DNA sequence: TGTTAGCACTCTTTGCGTTCGACTGCTAAA
DNA sequence: TTTAGCAGTCGAACGCAAAGAGTGCTAACA
């Protein structure tokens, strides 16, 4: 357990370092945060904080920088909440009020405002994990192709196409649709992924169309897999504008990690959480990208669609601001989705 | 008009600079490209080439680097075509043969191979400017929503949804579908964008549903507008790995430009060109992003869908390789699309 | 026992001068 | 017109010294 003074000092180091990215000296703390004690006292405290693993001294004649452990402690216990400036709040309202269109539009708008305000990279992940199927529709496009549409109780999944043999008529397509619905109605989309073709279920007059059936089911599989997640990202270059990325190699490493959307999506989603909950991951040890921290909030985007809104920046991130922004955003989204239903 | 020897020397400078990114010295040219004359002679030639604007000398004790004018001349007249290595050709085949799924999948695959092989950023832009409408389908999703699908002769456009009043039955939807088809079949998708609702065309028994009709048409408008262009990009960090971007500010500037997808799409598409045609834009003067060159090829992706495949890299780009790769890719795509019909 | 002033010590940063090496441009001769 | 040779220029690399930033330690003090 840390003494009050140690907490104050640690908080000062973190706050100062977040702002300036420079090692923090005892004298600076004394002058700007703790005028009631001397720099020598602070030096002593800093020394013990270092031995406890909260601080790091790049070299002997430098100040201290916070370790990831310190940031963790800061986020958990030291940081006090802050509010957005009027300007920022207004900016968010503006970006989001105009875009009451499709979910995609909202996602785009969200990533853009967040990146603009926080100066970090923003990601939104949409998940349709547990949608149940209302119907499967087959639509003859009259050009030898069959459009397969999966309708779910919350929305329409992306569609897929299948080539049609010449001798297929409306009757047979209707019949096929009936069968598919019999099999899949009420099931979860995710069940497609490990689904094996049920030959036994299909009656004899359909035997010759097994191949087509299989194709359709393959499309369904693929479509539901792809549709499970939708990742949108914006502002990669906002993050690399920060001083930890002045070394191009760092910048490149960061961008490479950002290119792996699956991995990013996993980071944003792998610890569920209720609507409006916040998660902060600091550093590679907590599964964030190397040298980075990720702040995530979850929002319910509809009865069966859940979304994760995240901010990715350096470990030395302005957590207060980021949390405030995400708070505001998720509040608006929840409101917006609520209205939509 | 340049003498043969000047051309040879200029070509040598460009080739060497593309490979090494270092200023090229007279001695190097003599030893590796022109053993038949002395370095002093080459120095004289270099000097006149510089005064002609083809070369730049960073400082007096350095070699020469090519100007954008030199690259232009190189691409137009000096460069000889090259072939892909067996490994590269194989890689392309592999990436593209597996992905005969949707157009989106192919686009993604294309950007990935290109970035992988060339080590530059790759962009694909798909345009549906003049698709004509085969049919408009209304699909009752049995949950109070109506799915509007526009079917075109080449493919299905993204769909949109409309809320349905309670008292709508199948009959009325079928009727509405009939009307919409009567109005729009055979028209260009682009015609939606400036379309005004034709009250006069709708007969009396439908008058009460004007509002719904209007809604549907709004969806159609929006959907066709959004679908006009689709931009996919990959490998931003491949480009910034090159030495002209070791300064993080350059890297950032580059990435910022890459974030403006509309601008990029315009660069890739604003000078039409036939199927398979190649365009090379060098430097800001030719409308490429600053410090960059853009090589584009156009492919027909269907009767009414045209695509542009582009590579964005530093002005000091390996044009031979890039052109060879794009050539191969467009050949495959043309073949692939041909088969699909 | 906790706090503080003072000072020695360490290490980085900056600036400067020197050397080294890379090329060129020029001159004069072939 | 070409070429050898040489003087001259400029950047890169290196070493060194001085300046600056901060600390840790010691000894005194409350």
Describe the structure.
The structure is a homodimer of 341-residue chains. By secondary structure, chain A is an alpha+beta fold. The first copy, chain A, is built from twelve helices and ten strands. Chain A has three domains: 75 residues, Winged helix-like DNA-binding domain superfamily/Winged helix DNA-binding domain (Arc Repressor Mutant, subunit A), CATH 1.10.10; 155 residues, GAF domain (Beta-Lactamase), CATH 3.30.450; 95 residues, 2-Layer Sandwich (Enolase-like, domain 1), CATH 3.30.390. In chain A, helix 5 runs parallel beside helix 12. The radius of gyration of chain A is 26 Å and the shape is elongated. Chains A and B meet through strand 4, strand 5 and helix 10 of A and strand 4, strand 5 and helix 10 of B. Chain B binds a DNA duplex (30 and 30 nucleotides) through helix 3.
> Which chain pair shows the most residues in contact?
A-B, 34 and 33 residues
Strand proportion of chain A, as a percent range, falls in 15-25%
The CATH topology name of the largest domain in chain A reads Beta-Lactamase
Rg of chain A from C-alpha positions?
26 Å
Strands of the widest sheet of chain A, in order across it, are 7-3-10-9-8
Q: What is the global morphology of chain A?
A: elongated
**Strand elements of chain A, count:** 10
Number of helices of chain A: 12
Structurally, the number of domains of chain A stands at 3
Question: H/E element string of chain A?
Answer: HHHEEHHHEEEEHHEHHHEEEH
Termini distance of chain A? Answer: 48 Å
Please state the average pLDDT score of chain A. 86
Instruction: Return the CATH architecture of the largest domain in chain A.
Output: 2-Layer Sandwich
- What composes the largest sheet of chain A? 5 strands, antiparallel
Output the CATH class name of the largest domain in chain A: Alpha Beta
The helix content of chain A is: 40-55%
Write down the oligomeric state. homodimer
Structural class of chain A: alpha+beta
Provide the CATH superfamily of the largest domain in chain A: GAF domain
Which blocks of ≥5 consecutive residues of chain A have pLDDT under 50? none
């Amino acid at each position: 357990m840390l003494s009050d003074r140690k907490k104050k000092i640690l908080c000062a180091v973190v706050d100062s370092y977040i702002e300036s990215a420079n090692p923090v000296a005892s004298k600076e703390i004394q002058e700007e945060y703790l005028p009631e004690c001397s720099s020598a006292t602070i030096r002593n405290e800093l020394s013990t904080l270092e031995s406890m693993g909260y601080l790091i001294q790049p070299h002997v004649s430098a100040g201290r920088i916070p370790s990831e452990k310190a940031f963790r402690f800061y986020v958990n216990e030291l940081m006090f909440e802050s509010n957005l400036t009027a300007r920022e709040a207004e900016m968010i309202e503006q970006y989001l009020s105009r875009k009451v269109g499709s979910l995609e539009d909202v996602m785009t708008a969200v990533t853009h405002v967040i990146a603009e305000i926080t100066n970090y990279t923003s990601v939104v992940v949409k998940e349709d994990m547990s949608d149940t199927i209302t119907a499967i529709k087959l639509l003859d496009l009259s050009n030898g192709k069959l459009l397969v549409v999966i309708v779910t109780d919350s929305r329409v999944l992306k569609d897929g196409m299948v080539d049609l043999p010449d001798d297929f008529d409306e009757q047979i397509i209707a019949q096929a649709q009936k069968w598919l619905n019999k099999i899949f109605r009420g099931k979860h989309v995710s069940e497609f992924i490990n689904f094996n073709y049920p030959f036994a279920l299909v009656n004899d007059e359909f035997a010759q169309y097994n191949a087509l059936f299989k194709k359709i089911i393959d499309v369904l599989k693929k479509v539901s897999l792809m549709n499970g997640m939708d990742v949108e990202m914006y502002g990669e270059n906002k993050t690399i504008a920060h001083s930890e990325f002045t070394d191009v190699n760092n910048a490149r490493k960061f961008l490479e990690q950002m290119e792996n959307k699956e991995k990013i999506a996993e980071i944003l989603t792998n610890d569920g959480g209720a609507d409006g909950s916040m998660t902060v991951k600091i550093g590679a040890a907590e599964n964030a990208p190397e040298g980075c921290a990720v702040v995530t909030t979850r929002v319910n985007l509809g009865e069966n669609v859940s979304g994760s809104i995240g901010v990715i920046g350096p470990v030395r991130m302005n957590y207060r601001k980021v949390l405030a922004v995400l708070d505001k955003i998720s509040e608006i989204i929840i409101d917006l989705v609520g209205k939509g239903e």
